[in-house]
Write a structure and sequence with these properties.
The structure holds 2 protein chains of 2 kinds.
Chain A (H helix, E strand, L loop, with lengths): L3 E4 L2 E4 L5 E7 L12 E6 L5 E6 L3 E2 L7 E5 L3 E6 L8 E7 L11 E5 L1
Chain B lengths: L2 E5 L2 E3 L5 E8 L7 E7 L5 E7 L6 E3 L7 E6 L4 E6 L8 E9 L2 E5 L3 E5 L2
Parallel strand pairs in B: 2-11
Antiparallel strand pairs in B: 1-3, 3-8, 4-5, 4-9, 5-6, 7-8, 9-10, 9-11
The chains are: A mainly beta, B mainly beta.
Amino acid sequence: DIVLTQAPLSVSVTPGESASISCRSSKSLLSSKGITSLYWYLQRPGKSPQLLIYQMSNLASGVPDRFSSSGSETDFTLKISKVETEDVGVYYCGHRLEYPLTFGSGTKLEIK
Amino acid sequence: EVQLVESGGGLVQPGRSMKLSCAASGFTFSNYGMAWVRQAPTKGLEWVATISYDGSSTYYRDSVKGRFTISRDNAKSTLYLQMNSLRSEDTATYYCTRGSYGGYDYWGQGVMVTVSS
């Protein structure tokens, strides 16, 4: 199974500052179709997960452009610019390269 | 507006069965693969099963293979998860989610399943 390792476990950010979350894969997530199968989700407190980023760097519909993602075949970074209070929650990376699908263990973002 | 509404959860004894449903609306259900993802209390996300748009292909995580069955009724725009031989480790909130080209882009509100005697 592909293991996704997220860091840090938690991050505390002052509103208006930036935050970065890392996700490292145990296997290349580059598919045979040339797509990097890495996704980012946000789960706000008490809510369902929501898709933020698909195929490593594409913003999902309705997601503010303060969110961005980049990476290689195995190392990925989610960046949140100008953090707002509504960004509080747990961020998960996940892949869809092969079964079983797996997720990282999550990074909790808190506001200072 | 896309909506996914799960139902059928609750308290069940170990070894017993339960069937979850997910009613979809606001999109052409038969065009999309669907999945169940669960989250144990205070834990992270765990993929459970996926079904193709027409039901011809299904995939399961090893720990539920042979016990859980994912299915769909495209005429009713409904996704199902039949869970047999339930174990305490199956206790979780179960989410149904739509699989699109751009990822799992819509999620239901979740339904709680508690396996306990």
